[in-house]
Design goal:
Blueprint (H helix, E strand, L loop, with lengths): L11 E4 L5 H13 L4 E5 L5 H12 L4 E5 L4 H9 L4 E3 L5 H9 L3 E6 L2 H9 L4 E4 L2 H13 L7 E4 L7 H5 L5 E4 L10 H19 L1
Parallel strand pairs: 1-2, 1-8, 2-3, 3-4, 4-5, 5-6, 6-7, 7-8
Helix pairs in contact: 1-2, 1-8
Length: about 210
């Protein structure tokens, strides 16, 4: 299988679901120091717009900062206002994808079927997100790769360092990692330790 270029230096999207604004800079800083350059703060986190804006101001030169669970135009408006440049969705909604792309935002569109994947690509999505990956597994990725163009595909949902290579070996360029990386309220050092494990798992596979 030919290599598919990743839009990120380290193709692991860090998902900080539930993080509060006063915690954001410490955790994002630790992730950036560990080599992460894609940070997602979901819209169901407290004052997520403030967290995105703070992270962009402090780390926007080092990482692509954005929002996850982007579902409605109001989410996109707030993301753009906060300076975010990455929108990650759990579903395929072509009008929202077209709007985001038209505003210069990179989109990782969530999908669960080949039809949804092609609808997202037709709308302009630059990346695809198989969600929830734990339900579909690597076999789904292998099957999809037989029909999809060479677009970056991320596995999201239940991916751990131990099984990351299973998804990479069948055609994912990387993964989005949420609960296995960050739980609300956890200390920064735990985020750093988890980040190191994921980064090492990726590097071990890529070596």
């Amino acid at each position: 299988m030919d290599a598919i270029p990743s839009p990120f230096r380290l193709p692991l999207i860090a998902i900080l679901r539930g993080i509060a604004p006063h915690e954001t800079l410490a955790h994002v800083g630790a992730l950036v120091e560990e080599g992460f350059d894609a940070i997602e703060i979901p819209t169901n986190s407290p004052q997520w717009q403030d967290s995105v804006a703070a992270a962009v101001r402090e780390y926007g030169a080092h990482a692509r900062i954005g929002a996850g669970t982007v579902l409605i135009p109001a989410h996109l408006d707030a993301l753009v206002a906060a300076g975010g440049t990455l929108a990650v969705t759990p579903n395929t909604h072509p009008p929202l994808i077209r709007d985001a792309v038209g505003r210069g935002v990179q989109v990782a569109a969530g999908f669960a079927t080949a039809s949804e994947a092609f609808a997202a690509l037709d709308a302009g999505a630059q990346m695809l997100k198989l969600f929830p990956a734990s339900v579909y597994g690597p076999a789904m990725v292998r099957a999809l790769r037989s029909v999809l163009p060479p677009v970056p595909l991320f596995a999201v949902g239940g991916v751990t360092p131990d099984i990351l290579s299973d998804y990479l070996s069948v055609g994912c360029v990387g993964a989005g990692i949420g609960g296995e990386l960050y739980q609300p309220g956890q200390p920064v050092e735990r985020t750093r330790q988890h980040a190191r494990r994921f980064r090492q798992a990726y590097l071990d596979y890529a070596a």
